């Protein structure tokens, strides 16, 4: 179907040649409208890439067809993503080309080139959409069993690859939508009329290309590399939790006399003793010894948790003395992942509960 669409576009482009010379305003306008329509159509077709293929077979049946999925994965790695990268780059270069600077490029030839690139890009995206629907069929974690022999087609890996492909698709669709809007508003010379838009689309293009590079880099990673990435995220999360708690610990909200009396009663003290002075109300107050010990313990717990994950990461990098078994199933790999991520989540929850202040108020305080 994509091939027939490409042929139809080629025929339509050829029919415009009969309208007159390359600088004919009518022909240029017709092509601008056609380019805008094609940009919008491709955008609409691939915006929801995760919908998968039409009338797919049972996801579990697809998941177990390892040979077919492996072939599609190899093609995605060696051909599809690289082709998409070239086509995205070519699309931007073609749309930003200036006829005045390059005499061989006329408005009509420029727009015809854009249409040809779009046709190829759509064909590539169609193949990527089919491939990722088979590589990562719509399965729930509980449905995945005994995939320890699937190598890089385990659900643990294929699900993460699909997420990265969806990111690529999102950036691509953002770029297509931007080009369509600019083409409708300013025509093919939008870069000349709106210089700032040139910077914007170059930035969007680079973001899209970077996401493709990240997807390709992901496909070169081992299971151990993926777990190491998760551990690094856990370390970062624990560091953020520690920094947040220390920042809160160093700031104590000013208390009114009534709040001070209530606090002393809760600690078993006489509220009449050491009544706060006006000067002391705006100053940090001394913590109750039990609360002070609690906060010290929390800081120690977060630091020890971070040290544990950091040591785990360090040990895993010792490839001479440490090797990871290759036949772990998705469930076993998920246990490795959740073991550390649960620590980070638990520490974050503890800190959040001890911080006492509502999140919105605390955020406002910390921004001061």
From TrEMBL:
Biased composition (Basic and acidic residues): 261-270
Segments of this protein annotated with the region Disordered: 253-286
Protein name as catalogued: Uncharacterized protein
Native organism: Puccinia graminis f. sp. tritici
């Amino acid at each position: 179907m994509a091939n027939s669409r490409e042929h139809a576009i080629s025929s339509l482009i050829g029919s415009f040649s009969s309208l007159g010379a390359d600088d004919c305003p009518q022909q240029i306008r017709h092509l601008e409208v056609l380019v805008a329509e094609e940009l919008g159509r491709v955008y609409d077709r691939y915006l929801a890439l995760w919908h998968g293929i039409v009338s797919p077979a049972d996801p579990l049946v697809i998941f177990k067809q390892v040979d077919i999925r492996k072939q599609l994965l190899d093609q995605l790695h060696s051909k599809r993503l690289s082709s998409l990268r070239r086509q995205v780059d070519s699309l931007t270069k073609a749309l930003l080309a200036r006829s005045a600077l390059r005499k061989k490029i006329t408005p009509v030839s420029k727009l015809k080139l854009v249409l040809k690139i779009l046709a190829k890009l759509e064909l590539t995206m169609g193949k990527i959409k089919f491939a990722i629907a088979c590589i990562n069929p719509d399965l729930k974690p509980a449905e995945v069993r005994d995939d320890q022999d699937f190598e890089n087609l385990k659900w643990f890996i294929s699900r993460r690859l699909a997420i990265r492909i969806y990111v690529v698709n999102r950036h691509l669709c953002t770029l297509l939508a931007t080009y369509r809007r600019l083409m409708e508003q300013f025509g093919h010379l939008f870069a000349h009329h709106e210089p700032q838009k040139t910077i914007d689309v170059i930035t969007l293009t680079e973001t899209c290309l970077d996401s493709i590079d990240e997807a390709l880099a992901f496909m070169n990673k081992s299971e151990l590399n993926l777990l190491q990435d998760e551990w690094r995220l856990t370390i970062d999360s624990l560091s953020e939790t520690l920094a947040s708690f220390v920042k809160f610990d160093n700031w104590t909200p000013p208390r009114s006399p009534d709040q001070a009396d209530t606090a002393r009663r809760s600690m078993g003290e006489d509220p009449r003793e050491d009544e706060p002075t006006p000067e002391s109300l705006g100053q940090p107050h001394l913590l109750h010894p039990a609360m002070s010990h609690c906060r010290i313990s929390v800081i120690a717990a977060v630091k020890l948790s971070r040290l544990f994950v950091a040591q785990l990461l360090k040990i895993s990098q010792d490839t001479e003395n440490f090797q990871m078994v290759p036949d772990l199933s998705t469930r076993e790999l998920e246990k490795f992942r959740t073991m550390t991520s649960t620590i980070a989540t638990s520490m974050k929850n503890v800190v959040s509960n001890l911080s006492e202040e509502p999140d919105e108020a605390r955020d406002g305080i910390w921004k001061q």
